[in-house]
Amino acid sequence: MTVRELGHLVLYVHDVDRSAAFYREVLGWTQILPEPGEQPVGAAAFSSGRTHHELLLIEVGSDAAEIPRGRRVGLYHFGLNVGESDDDLRAMVNTLKAAGATIVGASDHTVTHSLYIEDPDGNEIELYVDVPGIDWKADPALIAAPIRPLDL
């Protein structure tokens, strides 16, 4: 068996309408299910067009347990490529601030420049751009380079 690519991510959320609005309106992801005007189905799917869906949100209600904080086993964050340059990241900062989103971190990973945010349910998301001219395929050790603060 060989894994060819990461296909999609599925997240449980308290309120699918609230979370769908965040992914659609703040991050600009195309919502494909339900389509505009359709009745809510307790779920929402998003795609960049690369595949049928890359993100699926499933509503579990307001009484579901919160994500535990601190050291734990499980998902730490997922990454979304949001552009090609630091200018794209700077524009993302303005979008996030205008939407009232909280940026919880910013890092220079040598191969990427990254902002870290949380969605309405506390799922951490890395918004990143690949650093031009960095050939991680020729030198995979660059992926584990020391993390430095990102100064945009």
Explain briefly what this protein structure is.
Helices cover 16% and strands 30% of the residues. It has 152 residues and is of the alpha+beta class.
Structure description:
The chain has 152 residues and is an alpha+beta fold. It contains two helices and nine strands; from the N terminus they run E-H-E-E-E-E-H-E-E-E-E. Strands 5-8-7-6-9 form a five-stranded mixed sheet, with helices on one face. It has a four-stranded mixed sheet with strand order 1-4-3-2, covered by helices on one side. The chain is globular. The model has no long low-confidence stretch (mean pLDDT 95).
Lay out the secondary structure.
Blueprint: E1 9-13, H1 16-26, E2 31-33, E3 43-46, E4 55-59, E5 78-83, H2 86-99, E6 103-108, E7 112-118, E8 124-130, E9 148-149
